[in-house]
UniProtKB/TrEMBL annotation:
Keywords: NAD, Oxidoreductase. One of its GO terms (molecular function) is oxidoreductase activity, acting on the aldehyde or oxo group of donors, NAD or NADP as acceptor. Belongs to the aldehyde dehydrogenase family. This is Aldehyde dehydrogenase family protein. Pfam families: Aldedh (PF00171).
Length: 162
């Protein structure tokens, strides 16, 4: 996960979380699909994160200026779309993305997707998705953020913005 504390540089935190969640199309074990943000910066972070995600260019990875390429297969795309539906059904709010993208070239393109107002018990917070899907969870303070970050089966990487 990535942790963003109240005293973080907002611009740096948003860029770090964007890259760690969505670059490599989120298809790596170290992708930060969980973003844990303290309540003092939460609203500003979410607003800035949505604006940043909207600027991500999706397309062929061989094309100049593309930030996020396709997911690896039709099966993976379908799995990613299922997780997006699960997130909605479990009560997370879809802030942006969540749909296929037509890029004028063959491939399994998915818009970078951000859920907010999620909680640590949701499947999108507990399971590895392997796609461009991330969710933001609000916490009170550093202690709660650290406890939540450590409450996972998958502890391959983590970061903190302070």
């Amino acid at each position: 996960p990535q942790i963003v504390l109240d005293d973080a540089d907002l611009k740096v935190a948003v860029e770090l979380c964007t890259q760690s969640a969505f670059y490599s199309t989120g298809q790596r074990c170290t992708a930060s699909s969980r973003i844990i943000v303290t309540e003092g910066i939460y609203d500003r972070f979410v607003e800035a994160m949505v604006e940043r995600i909207k600027k991500i260019k999706v397309g062929s990875a061989l094309e100049q200026g593309v930030d996020v390429g396709p997911v690896v297969s039709q099966a993976q795309l379908e799995q990613d779309l299922r997780y997006i539906e699960i997130g909605k059904q479990e009560g997370a709010r879809l802030a942006c993305g969540g749909e296929r993208v037509a890029c004028g070239t063959e491939g399994y393109f998915l818009a970078p997707t951000l859920f907010v107002d999620s909680n640590p018990n949701m499947r999108i917070s507990r399971e590895e998705i392997f796609g461009p899907v991330a969710n933001v969870v609000k916490v009170k303070d550093y202690g709660e953020a650290l406890a939540m970050a450590n409450d996972t089966e998958f502890g391959l990487s983590a970061g903190i913005c302070t």
